[in-house]
Amino acid sequence: MLILPGLIDPHTHLRVPGGEHKEDFATGTKAAVAGGITQILGMPNTNPPLATAEVLQATLATAAQDAYCDVGLFAGASPPVIEQLPSLAPYAVALKIYLNDTFGDLRVDDVPTLAACFATWPRDKIIAMHAEKQSVAVGIGLAAAYGRAVHFCHISRREEIELIAVAKARGLPVTCEVAPHHLFMTTADYERLGPLADMRPVLGTPSDVAALWEHLGETVDCIATDHAPHTLAEKRSATPPPGIAGLQTSLPLMLTAVKNGRLSLPRLLELMHDNPRRIFNLPAQPDTHIEVDDETPYTITNEAMHSKCGWTPFAGWEVVGRVHKVVLRNQTIYENGQFLDKAGQPFS
Q1: How far apart are CA 326 and CA 73, in angstroms?
Q2: Whether residue 111 has pLDDT greater than 80
Q3: CA–CA separation, 254 vs 212, rounded Å?
Q4: Residue 149 carries which DSSP code?
Q5: Number of helices and strands in the chain (H, E)
Q6: Inter-helix orientation angle 158-169/206-215, to 10°
Q7: Would you say residue 51 has pLDDT above 90?
Q8: pLDDT of the residue at 239
Q9: What is the pTM of this model?
Q10: Rounded mean pLDDT, 320-329
Q11: Does residue 59 contact residue 88 with C-beta atoms inside 8 Å?
Q12: Which residues of 99-132 are buried (b: 16+ CB within 10 A; e: fewer)?
């Protein structure tokens, strides 16, 4: 049995507010805890988006009532209300800028708005970007021009990770994350599973996956799930939305990779604990640990998922890494499949 610190997921979509039929703070944080994660960051592309102080405050209040683990939020850069940006900082861990397609009013595709973000967002809180392909170059350029840190979300392509590696070699203050589905699945899985393996960014080629693994030892800073659940009915509809659940399967997938010699346990802890805490300047969680069985194989099933969506594209995969116990601030909140207490706290 391994004893590890409570892990951190810096990229989740818990669907609050506006999408609670897919997920809410109770079900999403239960999935996190069952996956050994005790601290998560929620993304702002909700309905309404987390782009005003009022919505951020209300969402933090909901988290305080419902969450089983600690929850922080991203503020969203929204062009219609960009002048309010500095007022959001007290309620958010970081700022999220969408350079590529997303839902709602959060896409930023003009230079004046980008300049406003980099000029007015407090420098002690990081800027994270959804950037794909050539948009990564835009983000690197902004980091260089403004001399401030930029974190790239869910990097998935060979050209993206190689460009970030060059930027890091030049000393630019950029960091990045990779999602487990981009490490373990390829376009072939989409051909097999269809909408159940559709997300943004879409799955890459075997060459893309190989590049992510090649850079996992140094260039990649974090493992982040991009947990983005949808109901099976939505996924089976004529217009299936992109996104999959990932909070409960991330650690088992990564510990299985450790068991198979693809990375070391110390490196896994850097990717899933040390680096996210440092990059996002997250509060410490004293007297917090998880107990994980890294030896006994088991099969991932839809029925075992605590996410409200109730399914995973990894159903049927054999892994190790079942979480047996979670202690948060010296309080046992999960043991042998049972949730014993709701001890989550919001933070900003």
Answers
A1: 22
A2: yes
A3: 14
A4: -
A5: 13, 15
A6: 30
A7: yes
A8: 97
A9: 0.97
A10: 99
A11: no
A12: beebebbbbbeeeebbebbbeebeeebbbbbbbb
User: Distance (Å, rounded) from C-alpha 173 to C-alpha 198?
Assistant: 31
Specify whether the CB–CB gap between 35 and 312 falls below 8 A: no
- H runs (alpha helix) in the chain: 25-34, 53-66, 85-88, 111-120, 134-146, 158-169, 180-184, 187-193, 206-215, 232-235, 250-259, 265-269, 275-280
Residue 272 CA to residue 257 CA, distance in Å, equals: 14
Which residue shows structure tokens 């299985």?
256
| Contact residues for 264 (Cβ-Cβ < 8 A; gap 6+) | 258
What is the tens place of the pLDDT at every residue in 114-164? 999 999 999 999 999 998 999 999 999 999 999 999 999 999 999 999 999
User: Do 227 and 28 contact (CB within 8 A), yes or no?
Assistant: yes
How much is the average pLDDT of 319-330? 99
Rounded to a whole number of angstroms, the distance between the first and last alpha carbons of the chain is 33
Whether 246 contacts 225, CB under 8 Å: yes
Higher pLDDT, 112 or 181: 181
Q: Domain spans of the chain?
A: 2-339
Q: Summarize pLDDT for 55-69 with one digit per residue, the tens.
A: 999 999 999 999 999
Residue linked to tokens 């405050």: 57
Taking each helix axis as running N to C, give the angle between helix 53-66 and helix 25-34, from 0 to 180 degrees, rounded to the nearest 10: 60
Which token pair is 337?
Answer: 């499949």
Q: What CATH number has the domain spanning 2-339?
A: 3.20.20.140
**311 vs 228: CA distance, rounded Å:** 12
Residue 230: closest CA among 36, 13, 31, 42 = 13
Tell me how far apart the alpha carbons of residues 151 and 78 are, in angstroms, rounded to a whole number.
Answer: 18
Count CA atoms within 13 Å of residue 96 on its CB side: 29
Helix ranges (DSSP H) in 170-231: 180-184, 187-193, 206-215
Burial of 317 (0-12, 13-18, 19+ CB in 10 A): middle
* Alpha-carbon gap, residue 76 to 54, rounded angstroms: 13
Residue 100 has pLDDT above 80, yes or no: no
Residue 103 has pLDDT above 60, yes or no: no
Residue with tokens 């499949």: 337
ω into 276 cis (within 30 of 0): no
Largest CA distance in the chain: 54
